[in-house]
Amino acid sequence: MPAVLPRPRENRCRDALLGALLPGVGPTLPGLGQLDLSAFWQRFEAAAPAHLRLGLRLAVVGAAVLAPVLLYGRTLPALTEDQRDAVLQRAAGWPLLGPLLDVAKVVACMAYFADAGVQSAARGQ
Amino acid sequence: MAQQRIDGATQRTALTLQADLVVVGSGPAGSAVAREAALAGARVVVVEAGRWLRPDEFALSAFDSMAGYYRAMGAQVVLGRAPMPYVQGKMVGGSSPINGAICWRLPQDVHSAWVAADPGLAQALPWPVLEALTDAIEQRLNVAPTDQAVAGAKNLLMARGAEAMGLEHRPIRRNVQGCEGLGRCLQGCPKGRKLSVDATLLADAEAAGALVLSATEIDGIEVERGRAVAVVGRSDGGARVRVVARRAVVVAASAIQSPVLLLQSGLTHGPVGQNLQCHPGVSLSGTFAEPVRMWQGATQGHEVIGLRDQGLKFEALGFDLAILASRLPGFGRPFARELAAMAHQLDWGVAVRAQARGRVRRWAGRTLVTYSPTAQDVAQFRKGLRVLGEMMLAAGARHVALGVRGAPVRTERVADLHAFERDGPTSPAAYTAAITHMFSTCKMGSDPRYSVVGPDFAHHAVRGLYIADSSVFPTHLGVNPQIAITAIATLCARRAVGRPLDAAWLTARAGHPLPLESTP
Hints:
The complex is a heterodimer of chains A (125) and B (520). Chain A is an all-alpha fold and 125 residues long. Chain A has one domain (7-21, 34-123). Chain A is 67% helix and 0% strand. Chain A has helices at 7-21, 38-47, 50-72, 81-91, 97-113, 116-123. Chain B has 520 residues and is α+β, with helices and mostly antiparallel strands. Chain B has two domains: 8-48 and 88-99 and 104-140 and 196-272 and 441-510, FAD/NAD(P)-binding domain; 147-186 and 277-356 and 374-432, Cholesterol Oxidase, domain 2 (2-Layer Sandwich), CATH 3.30.410. Chain B has 14 helices and 22 strands. Chain B has helices spanning 28-39, 62-69, 108-117, 121-124, 127-140, 153-165, 201-207, 257-264, 321-326, 332-340, 375-394, 414-423, 482-496, 503-510; strands at residues 5-7, 15-24, 44-47, 76-78, 84-86, 143-145, 169-171, 173-175, 211-214, 216-224, 227-235, 240-251, 277-287, 302-304, 312-316, 345-352, 359-363, 366-370, 399-401, 410-411, 434-439, 465-467. In chain B, strands 1, 2, 3, 9, 10, 11, 12 and 22 form an eight-stranded mixed β-sheet that branches. In chain B, strands 7, 13, 14, 15, 16, 19, 20 and 21 form an eight-stranded antiparallel β-sheet that branches. A two-stranded antiparallel ribbon of chain B has the order 4-5. Chain B starts with a strand and ends in a 10-residue tail after the last helix. Chain A binds chain B through residues 20-26, 29, 31, 40, 43-44, 46-49, 51-52, 84-85, 88-89, 92, 98-99, 101-102, 105-106, 109-114, 116, 119, 122-123, 125, and chain B through 60-64, 66-68, 72-73, 75-77, 291, 293, 295, 320-323, 325-326, 331-336, 339-340, 342-343, 405, 429, 432.
């Protein structure tokens, strides 16, 4: 897939999307946006098949760029947390974007529970 | 003692090996073939695309396991009306080290249907012989019902729900020894308590002299004057590898990779890659008042078999947290609330013996698998989810979540579940389904026009080429196939080494005299 955005900007949008998908969970579990995911992304880029990486990038373009621009005139990183969540709730019902958000959610969950601290805290619940 | 293992990851110079029998793939089929052939005295080389893993190398998280030793990170997808992932292991032992350890004998009704459709199979797959081999394999793999002491809430609650509905159910028979109920079968048991084929059948083959070349992907079968003479491929270390087969090449690489290897080798005879059958599965989650901690207890320890004759089999599921989480409803804050209650969530699944037929192709250097559930299959998804929902509510769930686009997110009413079964979405794309078991892409049969191998497992058009895995099964089974695969692959090995299915052999394998009236 050709780059729709410069890569650093796309990564900021990706991080904003995944952080909005999985915000803080109760008092003991952090939000995905609070974790250092650099090791995860390195491994993901090396191991994930092309169609999964493409699905994630399409989800980023759709839910972190197109949908928020349509709804608020700005991309997801520029929105407040309330606005980001509102974008997700709307976009989840859109025919093409809903399934792409499912893909992003799977990746978000993989990233979240790949963190040893999160695994340990969650299993201790 | 001769060298028993070569690690392709460190193989950087060209390598040529010779054997009587070359086996491509080390999953249940390849390991069973290697064991039988080596015990019969053949010089065997097994070539496996994945690497050896020790139990202490098995990861805790789903991501680390999938990135480490699942083929394409567990994200291979069939194309069709509803793209669905199909999951395969890529390591020595194939998917056996990372499956749910569920063991089923070949159902006699399935065998009878095969023989009724093609009477030539009666002599090739004699029922008493298969039964005897299955006994022996189950003994070797220590197959036994799940110990209730390690079952955990997810399995015990399924028993309660099925009992309340009057559905036949039972603890799943599994190939484990000393299971502690860590719930990590799908990432690989870190304590080595699963008796997967690498630790059993392949170990027996090695003890009998077989050599295992791991981390080496075979990409071609060499054929000379109508006979398979070698396989060629590349090691992870970058070396070209060739293994010469004095007697036979046995392909046992799975119902996806086996037809791919044939097609890559230009062996297009018969319906190779066609007739793909499988068991797509859908699942349903539910919330309980008390913590149930789905990640604790035997990964898959209970099943409901009362509707197997209708093509539905229900299983308790035990995912890693990442997979459980991804199946919970919602995005953003509503999703976070679901996650906060994750200790109270369970997920159960239903595998459907689907009507649909798919196909495996090679296109532009890539593997393409097409498969679309039929309307009847989607009706089975709805029925399966309704039964799961009723069972979970009967087991005490506060509410259940269907996980179907266009259906109510959650309900606590049985009437809603019946309405969903009746009026729910008819498009397969509305369902989050996944495929685990695949069959029939190199179908066995007497008529070369409609099959790839004959009843003797030999390729119809190429001498010295055999196929041993579930790709030769005439149909899908409706149950978990690993034990049936090992039993049938053992028969393939016997054919490939040119030995009879005689009484002395069977007695030696099964450890007791056997009735052989109907054996050839």
